[in-house]
Design brief:
The complex is a heterodimer of chains A (about 260) and B (about 290). Helices cover about 35% and strands about 25% of the residues of chain A. With about 260 residues, chain A is an alpha/beta fold. Chain A is globular, with a radius of gyration of 20 Å. Classes of the chains: A alpha/beta (about 260), B mainly alpha (about 290).
Amino acid sequence: MSSSDTVIRARNLGKAYQLYANRSEWSKQVLFGAFHTYYRSFWALKDVTFEVKRGESVALIGRNGCGKSTLLQVICGILRPTRGELWVRGRIAPVLALGSTFDLESTGRENVMIGGAVLGMRRPEVLAKFDSIVDFAGVGEFIDQPIKHYSTGMRARLAFALCAHLEADILIVDEALAVGDAAFQRKCMDWIEGFREHGTLLFVSHAKADVMRLCRRAIWIDDGRIREDGKPVEVVRSYARAMETEPDDMKRFTAV
Amino acid sequence: MLHIVDGEVVVTEKRRALTRLLRWFGEPMRSAWHHRDLIMAILRRELNERFKGSMAGWVWAIVAPFLALATYTIAFSGVVKLPNQVEATSQFDYALFIFGGLIAYSFFSEMAFRGPSLLHEYAHFIKQTMFPAEMLPIISTLRATVYVLIGLVVMLAAQIALTGTIHWTLILLPLWLVPFLAFLIGMTWFLSALGAFTRDAAYLMMTLAPILMFATPVFWSIDGFSPTVRLLMYLNPLTGFIEIIRHLTVLGTLPRLPVVAWTLMLSLVSFYFGFWFFRRQRDRIADVI
């Protein structure tokens, strides 16, 4: 095993999605998968190797569909990598696509209880922190309203507040923060800065300023591979240059 | 801690084959215990929604089985011989006899109808978070259990009110319920995993369930048939469950031991096969839902 302060280690990580011509191929795969393969593979992640140490804050940048989200989902344990080795230690708070995980028909309160349980909190823990969560989110009396009456921003607030109270070791922040208003974004940024003192941060954003402010390291992912890994200033600069010179490759969403 | 190599979760400690096997059999229970807060949180929400949305939520849940029971009582009040050739001790026995079977059957059909679309209902959970999808069939089965228990209570209350007797064998009812739950959870694991990939699973169950109702001794008893046909009847897992609940509630006798053993075995097979199947498809489900 690697040194004690490594929290994430990925070696030759690959994730293939199975693409099916139609739904019946799907069911055939489920029933007769042992005898025949009915799908084509799309490798969203091809070969990713990196290590993150405790207390590091790492930005992931890259074009749409380069594999950033897949990588994050794999690290969270939502998706299982097809090949390669992954080793993650500690409690993860995935602020992935904030608010989209909520059940629309349930109230904010019910969603906090369910979401807290999904993230691994025990019921007394959630109950003890409940007021603080509502406070942080600033949704007030709306907490007893169904989530479908929330604005996108309010959902994001509640989701972030929940993740902020998880006492996680690793915080994974997706682009979703962008839906909050400026005041809430500042609140989150301040909180994340405080979090970095004891925890590990993985941050995905297209906002260069945030990347520079929060992260000491940046990883540029291109076409399912790591293209550059280093100081944010340099990686962001070469990424920006590549975006100007390299045309948008329309063929990259094709299966092999 | 998460450690995966080539798509397989790595278990660091070395275990012997027997220990691994025992762990595998204990896995569903361990997993459910681990996620107990989640199960309760969702269950509480579902029941709240069911009973809070309407003003007289609990009343409806009680009125429905009560009306059914009243209908059967009126329709069959003159029959003196129960379908299993036993003399009826009162004019209400026939209704209770049918109702017992119907409770078991409607529990089954609720799960059979809901199973295939279950994961679609909760797609938002499965997609984004580290949601343990294998808990959903457990949750929905527990939810249906609440209605079954209401039905049972209505039936027993009616039995006391109408016939004035109640049998001591009732204390064995948990021994009926637990295997039945295991059977249904296993079935729902299988159906929901299948239903995640194809709508055909839902249509298939919609076609099969009503037919199965007539192949199941809900309105009749298998005692009227020849031994060969009877054996064939037991291939239908519901036959055993219905027979046992009738013995325990209406007839007040102990069920036949081979029937109990066979039913128990079917429950175990269903439970572990469903679990195995769901686990196998788990990752593909997250990809497609």
